[in-house]
Amino acid sequence: LSIGYFSGYFLLIFGKAPGSRLQPPRPEPFQFLNPLVVVGFWVLVVATVTGLAYRNAPQIRDTNDDTFPKYASFVEENLPRSGGILLSDDSSRLFLVEAALARDGRAKDFLPLDTQSLNWPAYLRFLHNKFPQKWPELVSPKEVKPLNPIGLIGALTMLAKSNELYYLHPSFGYYFEQFYQEPHGLAYKLKTLPGDTLLPPLPDKNQIAENQAFWARVETQAFAPIKRAVTPPDPNAPRSWGRRMLDTFHVPREQNQNAILAGTLYSRSLNFWGVQLQRAGDLTNAATCFILAEEVNPDNFVAQINLRFNQSLRAGKSVPLDLSKTTSDQFGKYRDWNGALNANGPFDEPSFCFVEGISLAEQNGFFRQAVAPLARVRELEPDNLEARLALGQIYVISRLPDRALEALRDPLEQPERFSLAKANTTQMNVLAAAAYLQKNDYARGTHLLETEIALHPDDTNLLNATVQAYLNHGLLTNALVIIDRQLKLAPNDPAWLFSRGYVSIQAKAYDDAIDAFTRVLATQTNNHPALFNRALACLDSGNLDAARADYKTLQQSLTNSFQVAYGLGEIAWRKHETNEAIRNYKLYLANANTNTAEATNVIQRLRELKGHSP
To answer: pLDDT tens-digit profile of 553-567?
Structure first.
C-alpha cells in the first residue's frame, strides 16, 4: 500500500509538468529527463511484478499441489470397506483423512476420534450427539472433570467387538496397553495384545509382501517431490538468470512446506515398518526402509540409529548395550523420549530399546508396551541382567508368573553369566518369589524370601516387601513372624507396631490389634491411620463405645470422611439409634462412591430405618 501511495507522488513529480491555461508551466532544469525517469519507473514496476511472479508461482503451485490428497488416498485405500473407527493423536492427519473420505462419499462409514481430546467430557458428548449409533453415552450432561483413561480403554475394547479400529500412524500411549498395531500401509489395525505374552506378533510372509508392495508404489508415486524439497541445493549447479537475480537481491529460496511435512509423515511410518522387518529378520528390506525414512526426512535421527545398527547386524558385528550413547544430546530438537518417538517412530538398537522400555514403564506407566523393547534387548543381549529384571517385574505386575520366571530362569540357574551383585541378587530373588507366590507355590516363594532376609536382616525395604507379599497371599502367620522379630529388636517402633496391628485385624486378633495401635498412638497422638484402624478393631470386636470415641475424634479432623461416617452409622445401627444411624448413613452417601456393595447395603439400611423411624 505504501509503495503504491509513494509511487503516485513519484510520477506526479517526474510526470507531466504542472500548468494551467492562465499560467503556462515554467521551464525547469533537467526537465528533459522526466520521460526517461517515468519509463524507468514503469520498467522497474514490470520487473518487480515479474520477479514476484517468478518467485511466488512455484510456492503457489506447491501449496496447491496433490501432496496431501495423495497421502490421504494412500491411507484410505487400506481402510476397511465396511467402515470402522479411526483414531489419531494428530488432528491435522485426522482432518486430511476425513477430507479424503468425504470426497469419496465414505465419511458416514467412519467414526473419527481425536485421542488427545478423548478424556474431556465435552468432546465425548459431542461424539455421542454427532454419532449416536456409533459412540455410546459415556458421561452425564453435567460432567466436566477429565475421565480416567482406563475407562476409555474399556470403552474402546467394547467397541472393538463390533467395529474395526484403525490408528492413522504409529504411536504409543494409554490405548496401546490393550492393543497393538498391525501395519497395512499407512493404516494400522488395532488388535488386542496377546494376554499370555504381551508381545505384538511379528509380521508374517503375507503381511510383509502386502506392505512391501505398498511402499514400493508409494516411493514411485510420491517421493520424488519430497526428496527434491528436503535435499539442499547444490551450490555448484548452474543457476537460471532469474535465480541469479533473486540471489543478487538476497531473496531466499522458499522450500516446499507441503512436501517437507509429508516427508515427516511418511518417514515415521517407514521407520516403524523397518523396525517390524528387522525384528522379523528381514534385514535387507529393513535397511531400505530406514534409508527411505531418512531420505524423505533427514531429521529422523531414530531411523539413522536403526540403520547403523542394521549395518552392524548384516555385517555380523556385536553391538553391546551402552547407555552412555542414549543421552539427550541425541534428541536434537526434541525435548525428551516421548517427543522423539512421536515424531520419528520406535528404536531398534539394544541401548535405545532398553532406555525406551524403561522410559515407557517407569516414566509413563505403560508397562505392557515396555515388554516389546525390553524383550528385544533380551533377544539381542541374552546376558543382560537389567532387561531380564525389568521384564520379570512387568510380568509379575501383569500377573503372568510363568513369563516372569522364564525371564529370570537363566540368571537364577546360571548366575555366573550375569555378574550378579548383592542388590541385583536380592531383586531377582524377590521377583522370583513373587512369581512363585502368584502360582500358589508358597514353599518356593517363602524359601526365597526367607533366604534373602537371613542374608540381609537389616534391609528394611526387603522386610517391608516381604510382609506385603505375605499379606497379599493371606500368609498372615509368616508376616507376623517377621514383624515380631523386628519388634524384639525395637519394641516401640511405630511402623512395625502399625504393621502388627494391621495384620492382627486381618487375623481377627482384635485385642492384639487394639494393643498395637494404642502403643502407636502413645507416641504419635495425631496418627489418623492408627486411630482409624483402632476404631475398626474395636468395632469388629464389639467394643462399640470405644469405637465411637475414636471415630468421633477422627471426625473432628476428617469432617467429610465417608469411612468415619460409615463407622458411626454402623455403631448407631447396632445400638438401634435410628436417627443417628440415618444421619451418618446420609453423610456417607454424600461423600462415597455409590457404585459399591457397601453403598448398596447402606442404601438398603436407610430404607429400612426410615420405614421404622418415628
So the answer is: 999 988 889 999 999
